[in-house]
Amino acid sequence: MRRRNIHLNTATAAKLLGISQSTLKRWIKELDLDMNRNELGHYDICDEDITMLKQIKKQIQNGTFLHNVTISRNKNRKGKTAILPKETTTVDTFLQRIDELEKKVNEKADNVVSYQLLTHRKEIEDLESEIKRLHLKVEFLERKLAESSSKENSEIQVNSFKINRKRSLLSMLFHF
Questions:
Q1: More confident residue, 15 or 158
Q2: Is residue 90 part of a domain?
């Protein structure tokens, strides 16, 4: 018995896979998947495509980044095979060179971000040590202020005691 070849639109295929339509379209675009289109330009997704998309979903769920997903292409491409002229091979070398340069740029960007993170971390550590130093200074000044204010209070009490004592003596001697 021959399997029936089912063709699904993007919405139905996305629902079957348990993903959004935009995710499905992004996978097709990012992974450069060879999907058939109908006369309106919409994707016409068949059984083999669904199987491949399920494998992609499984890889992503297992923690693989989208650009690192490996695709097993069982699908036979339709069309004639052409012998590549010399210009196409030079275009391929240019494209390969562009890919290498893009990787280098990405590595440089990663290095810059790493350096910035290290610099920010160092600045934060410096600020934390400065905060600790200032905190200790404030505590020291608060203690010093408390000591000096307690000395002033005791001096005021001693002085007021002396004044009160003099008044008492005077009032005893001279009754006003």
A1: 15
A2: no
Q: Evaluate if residue 152 carries a pLDDT over 70.
A: yes
**CA 21 from chain center: how many Å?**
25
Cα angle value 28/45/53 (rounded, 5°): 50
Residue 34 lies in a domain: yes
What radius of gyration do the chain's Cα atoms show? Answer: 41
CATH no. for residue 58? 1.10.1660.10
Q: Looking at the domain assignment, is residue 98 inside a domain? A: no
C-alpha–C-alpha distance, residues 91 and 83, integer Å = 14
The string of DSSP codes covering the chain is: -PPP--EE-HHHHHHHHTS-HHHHHHHHHHTT---EE-TTS-EEEEHHHHHHHHHHHHHHHTT--GGG------PPPPS---PPPHHHHHHHHHHHHHHHHHHHHHHHHHHHHHHHHHHHHHHHHHHHHHHHHHHHHHHHHHHHHHHHHHHHHHHHHHHHHHHHHHHHHHHHHS--
* Domain annotation covers residue 22: yes
Which tokens go with 62?
């297992």
Q: What is the residue range of 38's domain?
A: 7-68
Tell me how many domains the chain contains.
1
Q: Write down the pLDDT at residue 118.
A: 94
